Amino acid sequence: MAENEKKSWLRRRSEVAIRGGLTRAYQTVRVDPEKFLFQLRAAYGLPIATFQGVFSVDLMRIDDAGESIIRASMKMAAAEGAGFGLGGLLTILPDLGVLSAITMRMIQKLSLVYGFEMNTDEEIAELWIAAASAAGVDISRELLEKEVVNRFVPKVSQRIAA
Question: N or C, which terminus of the chain has less Cβ within 10 Å?
Answer without folding.
Answer: N
